[in-house]
Amino acid sequence: MFLDEIEIKEGALFISDAHDNKKRDGFYLFLKKLDAKEIVAPQLFLMGDMFDLLVGEVSYTKELFKESITLINKISEKIEIFYFEGNHDFDLQSVFPDVKVFPISLQPFCFRYRDKKILLSHGDLYQGFGYTLYTAIIRNKISLKILDFIDNSTKNFISKKILTPQIGKNICYEIENFEKIIKQKLQKYDIGITEIDFVFEGHHHQDKEFVFGELKYKNFSSFACDKSYYKITFEDEIKFIKIS
What we know:
Elements: E1 6-7, E2 13-15, H1 26-35, E3 43-46, E4 54-55, H2 59-64, H3 66-75, E5 80-84, E6 89-90, E7 100-102, E8 109-113, E9 116-121, H4 129-138, H5 141-153, H6 157-167, H7 178-186, E10 198-201, E11 208-212, E12 215-219, H8 223-226, E13 229-234, E14 238-243
Helix pairs in contact: 1-3
């Protein structure tokens, strides 16, 4: 059962998969512009993987992205921020106390925009039993506390081992048969296809839109790839203005 108690406001911004790290600082610069009101929006939707690694219980990752964390918390006092945890950033509610954080267990979540029902998620759902088991283990509080203890005891060896390969990793490529992959995944959603009007996701970095019967699907591009984010608007139908 999906709740549709939250309304998406006209002009809300959506940004996905910034994958911030030591060499990619575009997301931090975006946040600075938002804080300075050079970019204006009533709501901000962070669609996951905003950082290459940010975990609430892992001290090193919070210190590494301290400036961006501070900015997000500052902005959240002015506008609504919704953060959909991804596979690179999770266990975040304690990090962002005034942000509405959606862990994978609450995804997809149903929002309203005008008279339309929209499911939002990071996009890493339904990727097989092995992945589901992995996500459950890695998000377990006890597992994370143990991980943080070992990480701190080894001069952050584990965090650095995860982060270092991400810096040079190619994350900007087209996925073959992507429409077929999405169609198969949507069939696993616990919803009736006619009950929902739209599904919006990140994760895949594809910037693609598909129509399956009465359901429309959009996959956001990766901010890390093209420095783009989106503003939602309505002109006879729901549209996203891509801004870069």
